Design the sequence.
């Protein structure tokens, strides 16, 4: 019998683990806490407030154990998934996941496993990575004893991502694990072990049987990592990226003509993404960085006078955004529209740099960007990736000036989230007409007059202008 081990974890977790151990003892079932919780403990990043789910594995029925644990905890918040042999208890902001140890293997053509009961070791060897296969016993006589059959602790120390068994078998059983390997390497700044890496390169095409939602869940965790470029570099080198995001792979490459070359837009995009990641945790601003130059390849031209140009890549990239979001299973709501807008507008602040820029150009940008103007400026600043320090400084100063202009125009004209001071109803009343195209036309003319600066952004001025329009439209 193994001696108990001290676990240096929050008291509420310790109590919970002891309770679960005792319930399992009463059923005569071994029980273990496994996976992320144990890994994060040894990584020293067990943050009690951030833990959302804890995984338990038992030899025997996970459902039976979960039912009894729920009773003991005095909760009815239990969900049972008979088909998968799993159960979940929601308890104090925690999702406690219970599963019976399994031996399983997947058929070639689908993710549907054939499942048999197994031992703890059987269960550990079908996990994705050695660092995720660590477990502690929770039964009273062996409480806290570590089971580490695949040297996960050593891999944590050596910062290595490796599968417990032959990587090709691990990835064959569930190809999503290749994405998880990259995700953990990125989040933890670990290195993917050679054999595992080679297996991913070989098996990358198998990702095609995985749903876009599962892929994107891992992808978004990569995007939200401290240095997301690490993850995208791995996705490119392993061949995974082209399986679900070929447009991004196409950004790669440098052309030279007449001794002039353009930058490699794949690595440029990653630099922009990292720059954004330094100033914002917002997933969608990060996605805007990923997408901002996505349409450069088809808009690339060379001319002797202008060198390399990518005219219209902003508009085309915006047009591609819904299509790419749909394919990746990303949301198609306001979050997509926000990304689309930033992609469309990402060159506009640069056009405002020159001294002769009119207030009306600034006003138009504020009108179009609305509340997202600050994020747009963050993206533009992140987009400065020159190696030349002097240039970077110059560009940054230019954007300082643009921001000053935006601020002063904004203060004067209050164009952010602008609403036409004249409503459609008012136009119909003044013109004595029913709803129709004329109403929209008049409204548009008032908007244009304000954006152009022909009239101030006030109700009075807009009303006077409306009277003039009435005259104009009644005489012809
Ligand atoms: P985090 O929750 O911090 O992202 P985690 O390791 O808890 O990390 P989960 O997705 O919650 O990740 O999975 C819990 C555990 O289940 C993992 O630690 C791993 O042991 C196992 N696991 C999850 N997904 C797979 C998979 N596709 N193949 C094999 N094992 C998996
Ligand atoms: Mg987890």
Sequence:
């Amino acid at each position: 019998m193994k001696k108990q081990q001290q676990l240096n974890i929050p008291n509420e977790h310790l109590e919970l683990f002891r309770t679960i151990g005792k319930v399992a003892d009463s059923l005569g079932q071994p029980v273990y806490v496994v996976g992320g919780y144990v890994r994060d403990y040894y990584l020293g990043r067990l943050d009690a407030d951030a833990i959302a789910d804890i995984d338990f594995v038992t030899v025997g029925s996970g459902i039976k154990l979960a039912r009894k644990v729920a009773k003991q905890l005095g909760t009815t918040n239990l969900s049972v998934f008979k088909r998968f042999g799993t159960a979940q208890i929601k308890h104090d902001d925690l999702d406690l996941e219970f599963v019976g140890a399994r031996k399983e293997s997947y058929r070639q053509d689908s993710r549907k496993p054939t499942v048999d009961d197994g031992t703890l070791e059987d269960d550990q060897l079908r996990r994705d990575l050695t660092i995720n296969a660590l477990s502690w016993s929770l039964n009273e006589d062996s409480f806290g004893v570590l089971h580490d059959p695949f040297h996960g602790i050593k891999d944590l120390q050596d910062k290595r991502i490796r599968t417990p068994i032959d990587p090709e078998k691990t990835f064959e059983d569930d190809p999503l694990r290749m994405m998880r390997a990259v995700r953990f390497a990125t989040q933890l700044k670990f290195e993917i072990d050679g054999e595992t890496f080679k297996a991913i390169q070989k098996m990358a095409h198998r990702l095609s049987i995985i749903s876009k939602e599962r892929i994107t869940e891992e992808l978004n965790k990569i995007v939200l990592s401290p240095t997301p470029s690490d993850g995208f570099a791995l996705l490119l080198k392993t061949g995974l990226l082209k399986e679900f995001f070929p447009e991004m792979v196409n950004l790669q490459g440098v052309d030279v003509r007449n001794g002039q070359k353009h930058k490699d837009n794949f690595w440029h995009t990653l630099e922009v993404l990292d720059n954004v990641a330094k100033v914002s945790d917002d997933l969608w601003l990060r996605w805007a960085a990923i997408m901002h130059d996505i349409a450069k390849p088809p808009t690339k031209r060379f001319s002797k006078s202008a060198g390399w140009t990518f005219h219209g890549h902003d508009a085309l990239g915006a047009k591609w955004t819904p299509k790419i979001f749909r394919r990746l299973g990303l949301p198609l709501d306001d979050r997509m529209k926000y990304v689309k807008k930033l992609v469309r507008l990402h060159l506009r602040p640069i056009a405002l740099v020159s001294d002769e820029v009119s207030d009306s150009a600034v006003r138009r940008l504020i009108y179009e960007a609305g509340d997202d103007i600050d994020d747009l400026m963050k993206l533009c600043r992140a987009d400065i990736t020159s190696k030349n320090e002097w240039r970077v400084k110059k560009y940054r100063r230019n954007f300082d000036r643009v921001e000053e202009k935006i601020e002063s125009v904004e203060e004067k004209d209050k164009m952010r989230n602008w609403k036409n001071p004249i409503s459609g109803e008012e136009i119909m009343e003044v013109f004595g007409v029913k709803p129709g195209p004329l109403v929209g036309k008049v409204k548009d003319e008032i908007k244009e007059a304000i954006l152009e600066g022909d009239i101030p952004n006030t109700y009075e001025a807009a009303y006077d202008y409306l009277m003039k329009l009435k005259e104009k439209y009644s005489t012809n």
Q: What stands out?
A: The chain has a mean pLDDT of 93.
